[in-house]
Design a protein that fits this description.
The complex is a heterodimer. Chain A is mostly helical. Chain A has 15 helices and no strands. Chain A has a single domain, classed as MetI-like (MetI-like fold, Orthogonal Bundle). In chain A, α5 crosses α9, α9 packs across α11 and α11 runs antiparallel to α14. The longest helix of chain A is centred in the N-terminal third of the chain and has 34 residues. Chain B contains eleven helices and no strands. Chain B has one domain: MetI-like fold (Orthogonal Bundle), CATH 1.10.3720. Helix content of chain B is 77%, strand content 0%. By secondary structure, chain B is mainly alpha-helical. Chain B is globular. Classes of the chains: A mainly alpha, B mainly alpha.
């Protein structure tokens, strides 16, 4: 910085000058995340061990809440139910999104970026409004049912009532919301595929199906894993969609956490245990999958 | 012969693609239709055309104030996130330092945290510090969740720029700050604008974190969430929904097209 110092005649102004050294660059963003991201999570962990407490009065480190959680059939079975719902939703939409991404990346269509934007655009609009749309569509007096009454296919006394406020509704809406987003990482991995590999496979006598199984699919797996992770994580911690369209059968683990922090009978200690457990599962998944996401490893197999 | 797809295969995939697009847009179109429907409940058959619901929401002070609150929060948090994002992205692309992998993992980690858990964490932090919940507590949370998105937009753009331009400015005596202002910033401007838009829309639409740390002035998603539960407000909410959906779709598409055009021009120079 010697040049800058010599070049500046106004020495009073120079003292105020902020230069972009590495600590100046990294300090603000990292500081922000430490104070408003890492510290808050640590506080939740402290609540789960009763180091901090919602109740005034003396309290100290205990494992009671964790012990109760790990031995409770209610919380753990609710967690498994949510895992199953998220797994099914993620698996179905990854399978649906793959051919979409394949079409965009490999069919040679000239408008692929326009079509990609057409596909992604709904994802960039309001989440709540898309849930709202399904509420309007699926209700007992909703679009589907009243359409069926109107056309006489079903009598108004017998609407299809399982459409809304059910596990089905939650999974349909979650799938609807995440489908466009899931296509993106798969598209990226197929797009970067070297087409000469497919030509080589074809020259060596492979059929298209064989080339797909031996070349395209393995090379696109990192994108598939990324897609799966990107949808599985947020749906596992979901509480907005189930609270709007889930009713009692669609109640998920996330709703339980919200209720424990809610206004009814707050239990911040148990709620913190549930939250930290969810965070732990997500962290482990991310680390495991991050290893999978190394493209070279997959190519070498 | 095409090695990836037969002609029939391409035809089948194309049909499937447009079927899915139809499925994705149908609910939005249905909302659009019912926002003009002259009936207090969204049911078939359609009963007539009206602008009534649009007039109604324009006169709804509570709703307008929620939109305004969300716009303020989104403006503040997007600027905050982009400033922090620019600093972090320059460090990640232009500087060498120890523990870079860990730093970039930390910077991107808000992407994978369940927002529910993050919202609760912030709630407990502010509770512990005795900070009252307000507009600012929402802004703080939204900066955290938008920051990784801004980095994901800015880093690839910074990687594209020829570093020798910055080195030349630096060699000619410009300080690092001056180099940034005169060389780097203009070159990454398209990416900065799209990072701003992404952060703005993320914040404007964010419900989960805001629901835990919001004060007495509710945001638009929180208003919406409450309104969805009361059927008599439904037609109005649908009208607002349509306006917000159309505006956000337009902004998103315009931003993406604008960014591509601008980067192509900057790239051609």
């Amino acid at each position: 910085m010697a040049i800058a110092a010599r070049a500046s005649p106004a020495s009073r102004r120079r003292r105020l000058r902020v230069d972009l050294t590495t600590p100046t660059l990294l300090g603000p963003p990292l500081g922000w995340l430490v104070v408003f991201f890492l510290l808050p999570i640590t506080i939740v962990a402290a609540y789960s061990f009763n180091v901090y407490s919602f109740e005034p009065g003396p309290h100290g480190f205990t494992l009671t809440a964790w012990h109760d959680f790990l031995h409770s059939s209610i919380y753990l079975s609710l967690f498994w139910k949510s895992v199953k719902m998220s797994l099914i939703v993620s698996a179905i939409i990854v399978v649906l999104a793959y051919p979409l991404a394949y079409y965009l990346a490999l069919s040679g269509t000239k408008r692929k970026y326009v079509l990609l934007l057409l596909l992604i655009a709904p994802f960039l609009t309001s989440y709540l409004l898309r849930v709202l749309a399904w509420k309007v569509i699926l209700g007992n007096q909703g679009v589907i049912n009243t359409f069926l009454f109107w056309t006489g296919i079903r009598s108004p006394d017998h609407p299809i009532s399982q459409l809304l406020y059910s596990r089905f509704a939650v999974m349909l809406v979650l799938g609807y919301i995440w489908l466009p987003f899931v296509a993106l990482p798969i598209f990226v991995s197929l797009e970067s595929l070297d087409r000469r590999l497919l030509e080589a496979a074809s020259d060596l006598g492979a059929s298209r199906l064989q080339a797909f199984r031996k070349v395209t699919l393995p090379l696109s797996l990192p994108g598939v894993f990324a897609a799966f992770l990107f949808v599985f994580i947020p749906t596992l911690g979901e509480f907005v969609t189930p609270s709007l369209v889930g009713g009692t059968t669609g109640y998920m683990y996330g709703n339980q956490i919200v209720d424990l922090f809610g206004t009814g009978f707050p239990d911040w200690e148990t709620g913190s245990v549930l939250a930290i457990f969810l965070l732990g599962v997500v962290a482990v998944l991310t680390l495991v999958f991050a290893r999978f996401l190394q493209p070279r490893q997959v190519a070498a197999d | 012969m095409d090695v990836a797809l037969s002609r029939t295969g391409a035809w089948i995939l194309r049909s499937f693609f447009f079927l899915v697009v139809l499925f994705l847009y149908a609910p939005i179109v249905i909302l659009l239709i019912f926002s003009f429907n002259d009936s207090a409940v969204p049911t078939f058959p359609l009963s007539g055309f009206t602008f009534h619901w649009y007039r109604e929401f324009l006169g709804n002070a509570e709703l307008r104030s929620a939109l305004e609150t969300s716009a303020i929060i989104a403006a503040l948090s997007s600027v905050g996130a982009v400033v922090l994002g620019i600093l972090a992205s320059i460090a990640l692309t232009r500087r060498r330092f120890r523990g870079k992998a860990a730093v970039s993992a930390l910077l991107l980690s808000p992407l994978v945290i369940p927002y529910l858990v993050f919202g609760i964490s912030l709630l407990l932090l502010f509770h512990q510090l005795g900070v009252p919940r307000s507009l600012l507590t929402v802004v703080i949370g939204h900066i955290v969740i938008s920051l990784p998105y801004t980095i994901l937009v800015l880093v690839p753009r910074l990687d594209q720029i020829d570093v020798s331009l910055e080195e030349a400015a630096f060699d000619l005596g410009a300080s690092r700050l001056r180099t940034f202002r005169s060389i780097t910033l203009p070159l990454i401007l398209p990416a900065v604008v799209s990072a701003l838009l992404i952060a703005f829309t993320t914040s404007f639409d964010e419900y989960a974190v805001a629901s835990f740390v919001v004060g007495s002035r509710v945001t638009f998603p929180i208003y919406l969430y409450a309104a969805v539960r009361f059927p008599d407000q439904l037609p109005q909410v649908i009208a607002v929904a349509v306006v917000v959906l159309v505006v956000s779709l337009t902004v998103v598409i315009a931003a993406e097209v604008g960014r591509r055009v601008a980067e192509r021009r900057l790239g051609a120079q």
